[in-house]
Write a structure and sequence with these properties.
- With 295 residues, the chain is an alpha+beta fold.
- 20% of the residues lie in helices and 41% in strands.
- It has an 18-stranded mixed beta sheet that branches.
- Strand 6 and strand 7 form a beta hairpin.
- 47% of the residues are buried.
Length: 295
């Protein structure tokens, strides 16, 4: 029986037991796909990250939900890089540093900077790609709300910055509070339109310094609700730019407050006209557990 170092890190926060927790397993080259999936199911967090060696990047990282592997994930990237810095496996000094990670979605850069003892991690996501539009008459009842609760004049559609996710803009935080997803209907829509999860957001926030508030659901991946979702926040940034709802280079998005796990994601978007071309998300993290796992 082998032992592997494991950490639990809260991402998109610098306060323990807020933001979104991810498990991070180091030295994972010796683990099979079946073993990684079993560990992720045992951790029962939204995602578990497995750090391996890479011939094309500084690290290879694989992400598993309790039910399946996914090609890209935001909060586990923040958590993984935080843990690598904290354990001295990334030598971060006073100057900013760029590393690369090999993901199922490709080789992507991560920029790190330290200020006052806090490490800020900036993840560049894959080039935004837009998929199916989803019928309002299908997605609204699946979320337990009515079509009138959605923002008029813009579609509910699939966006991918590495992981395809459905973007659903609603009128207010009050609508977000009233969401009551039908798990089977949500999973059926995921399969029909070939996306991983649903990001429901409003163009208002509890903190006036932030621009949006969101909730996130991934029925088919075994995630009832995700506290703070980095990959989907990047996709949301691309969606907002494309549809002219928020066409600014930088903004802050909040999520998790309605679950008692508040977190904030900083978002950067670059684009030409109404086409977003580059999306970055960034945040901080804090470690809440270090140990080993036996396999």
């Amino acid at each position: 029986m082998a032992e592997y170092p494991i950490f639990i890190v809260d991402a998109f926060t610098n306060v323990a037991y807020a933001g979104n927790p991810a498990a991070v397993v180091f030295d994972a080259d010796g683990l099979s796909d079946v073993q990684m999936q079993s560990i992720a199911r045992e951790m029962n967090l939204s995602e578990t990250a497995f750090v391996q060696t890479s011939s094309v990047a500084n690290f290879r990282v694989r992400f598993f939900t309790p039910a399946k592997e996914i090609p890209l994930a935001g909060h586990p990237t923040i958590a993984t890089m935080h843990a690598l810095v904290e354990e001295g496996l990334i030598a971060l000094g006073a100057a900013p540093l760029r590393v690369t990670q090999e993901l199922k979605a490709g080789v992507l850069p991560v920029d790190l900077a330290r200020s006052g003892g806090t490490t800020t991690i900036v993840m560049t996501q894959a080039c935004p790609a837009f998929g199916d539009d989803i019928s309002v008459d299908a997605i609204a009842p699946a979320l337990g709300i009515g079509p009138a609760d959605l923002v008029p004049g813009v579609p509910c559609s699939v966006v991918s910055t590495g992981t395809p996710q459905a973007m659903v803009p609603v009128r207010s935080i009050d609508v977000l509070r009233r969401l009551s997803p039908d798990t089977r209907a949500m999973a059926d829509l995921e399969q029909r339109h070939k996306y991983f999860s649903v990001h429901v957001f409003a163009m208002e926030a509890m903190d006036p310094a932030n621009a949006t508030h969101a909730r996130h659901f991934a029925a088919g991946a075994g995630i009832a609700e995700d506290p703070v979702t980095g990959s989907a926040t990047g996709g949301m940034g691309a969606y907002l730019w494309k549809h002219g709802l928020l066409r600014v280079p930088r903004f802050r998005a909040e999520q998790g407050h309605l679950m008692g796990r508040p977190g904030v994601v900083s978002v950067e978007v670059e684009g030409t006209g109404d086409i977003p071309t580059v999306v970055r998300i960034s945040g901080t993290a804090t470690t809440v557990l270090r140990g080993t796992i036996r396999v």
